[in-house]
Design brief:
The structure is a homodimer of 170-residue chains.
Chain A (H helix, E strand, L loop, with lengths): L14 H6 L14 H19 L7 H12 L3 E2 H7 L4 H13 L3 E5 L7 E5 L1 H25 L4 H14 L5
Antiparallel strand pairs in A: 1-3, 2-3
Chain lengths: 170, 170
């Protein structure tokens, strides 16, 4: 099958490995060619690049997504937020407690279900979200440049397919 | 440009979002179409699926990769291992301490540089690595099925490109 060229075809497949391994001649065993391993390395690099971009703000990409989802969906429940953000409730709770302590998020007991919280942004949370959105846009432009316009739609689709299907075997 | 069909073309682009958001009609704002966000969701789902696959073994994919890299490269330094595994030294240290405490990894001071450790697997570490390798293979087969044979090489290449380039702006 004919493959569409990647935007930077001069890069060979082992470039990432070599750079990451500080040019040492390592044996990666079965990891070398594995989707799961490279998905983690790409995510770790992207996470770190976002943190560098948002250094003065000191909030991670996960917290940015959390603020964004609450900001766009005021009153969202913790359960819905956790599912939308790829986390379980137990990992989300300390993040929300931190964001509440820093004055960005309000948690209120739901009238319909006193065991659940509904979430909204404070005025400071909205300001912080606007600052982070600017950082995230720079970060995403950088990712888009790396992925390239030809491959972007398909790459995004495959990531979404993994998120939707990997836990649910046929 | 003609796009090669994805293996499951009936899936539309919003499927992952809808499933993850427990079918609620959420507004994802700029996240909806962002590589960085979906990279994290895919990684989180893959991480969880690996953990489920390796439940009895109770070791994460990151620890599996750590054991694999040490097993294939006996005497590897912490610095080299951190770079190969997409981590900085400060996040690797507690992982190595845990693996040492559980009897899977030996850390010894290097003769050439007494501030550095060289790492090897113990006999138990080698056994554990073999068990985890079987889990990882099942997990990776599942990921490969989701990505599809037509798109696999290109998808992997883009992940490697992100890991190599995202922190290094042009």
């Amino acid at each position: 099958m004919k493959q569409a060229p990647l935007s930077s075809s001069a890069e060979d497949e082992s470039t990432a490995l070599r750079k990451n391994a500080a040019n040492e001649n390592l044996d990666f065993g079965i990891l070398a060619n594995r989707i799961g391993f490279h998905l983690r390395l790409a995510q770790a690099a992207s996470f770190q690049a976002f943190r560098d971009e948002a250094r003065e703000i000191d909030l991670s990409p996960g917290r940015f997504a959390t603020l964004m989802l609450i900001g766009r969906n005021p009153g969202i429940s913790q359960t819905t937020l956790a599912a939308a953000n790829g986390r379980d409730k137990s990992t989300l709770t300390p993040i929300l407690e931190d964001l509440e302590k820093r004055g960005f998020v309000k948690r209120e007991k739901m009238k319909s279900d006193r065991r659940s919280y509904q979430l909204t942004l404070t005025e400071n949370g909205r300001k912080k979200l606007a600052e982070l959105t600017a950082c995230a846009k720079r970060h995403d432009e950088n990712l888009d440049r790396i992925v390239g316009p030809k491959d972007r739609a398909k790459f995004l689709k495959i990531l979404q397919k993994i998120a939707a299907e990997v836990g649910h075997k046929e």
